[in-house]
């Protein structure tokens, strides 16, 4: 059986994802699709709007055959490590290819870009350092270095100012660094850009646009046209139970408490908290009545919104710099769900996997897996606040979903 891998968050699964999934199977000529999906917290440093199990059901209902979890260590990491974790797992589960959505839509410019930076790595790094010394943020420094190289060595390259192109580049970089034979494929994004606002009645919208529309209107009906029926029903059921979707705004009282209960020096223990920002975090938390107002006080030229959110995620979950340094690569493949086709694939290929496949978490002792379980427990408690009887499934007791 031929398997194509995809890297996803499904926050939530929408019609654009359905198109990407269909095209991924088609261009890869694959029998099944394997999704490596972020768990409770995501790459831009925010909680998933619904839990991993609900998002797994959305994926399986819409045609994904196997869902495995991207560990917290990688799902909340900058693009380089996010990609490394994802491609490591797709390689370990024997995917023949991986397909990613991109603004560019053609694979050759990605390969040209990888070769350009790899062949001129020393010069590239020197240009980044040069830009950083002027006080420019790291992402902007990367962009500056890249622009200098493309002007010096003209060819057809990707626009590294686009978020999906950036991730696509790092997927290809990771596959090469890992020495994996997994083949890269890309699919052009359609209709809605990553940051585009939601247009009422549109059948294709970005997940960001959908979440913002939900936060503004407070009603699922406003975004129904952009969602498959299964997604709509799962979100509707979730909201009926918990009366809210997860976001930093809904978690703000708990995040505020978590920050304020620490001294500034204590905050420096946590991953990505650097360069004196700890003082600003505590000061702003004490005087902010919402997450938005808090972020407006601490955002600066040096700290992007995403970088700050990742810091806050680690503070909230208690994930330390020491823990981060202790992990070098994924240690297991955690199975979240499978279709009958996916189950058949696992039966055929399991002996070839290069990491152990975990379905019974309670019977497994693994430090990286323990971080995922802890993050899920923190997430669940945050959602359950203010509800009388509704409880989310215990992460370490939940078996893979069979669809």
Automatic annotation (TrEMBL):
Keywords: ATP-binding, Cytoplasm, Ligase, Nucleotide-binding, RNA-binding, tRNA processing, tRNA-binding. The keyword tRNA-binding applies. It catalyses: cytidine(34) in elongator tRNA(Met) + acetate + ATP = N(4)-acetylcytidine(34) in elongator tRNA(Met) + AMP + diphosphate. ATP binds at residues 7-20, 101, 164, 189-190. InterPro entries: Rossmann-like_a/b/a_fold, tRNA(Met)_cyd_acetate_ligase. Its EC number is 6.3.4.-. Its main location: cytoplasm. It is found in: Cytoplasm. Transmembrane segments: none annotated. It holds the Pfam family HIGH_NTase1. SUPFAM superfamilies: Nucleotidylyl transferase. It comes from the Bacteria. Catalyzes the formation of N(4)-acetylcytidine (ac(4)C) at the wobble position of elongator tRNA(Met), using acetate and ATP as substrates. First activates an acetate ion to form acetyladenylate (Ac-AMP) and then transfers the acetyl group to tRNA to form ac(4)C34. PANTHER family: TRNA(MET) CYTIDINE ACETATE LIGASE (PTHR37825:SF1). Belongs to the TmcAL family. This is tRNA(Met) cytidine acetate ligase. The lineage of its organism: Bacteria, Bacillati, Bacillota, Bacilli, Bacillales. The gene is tmcAL.
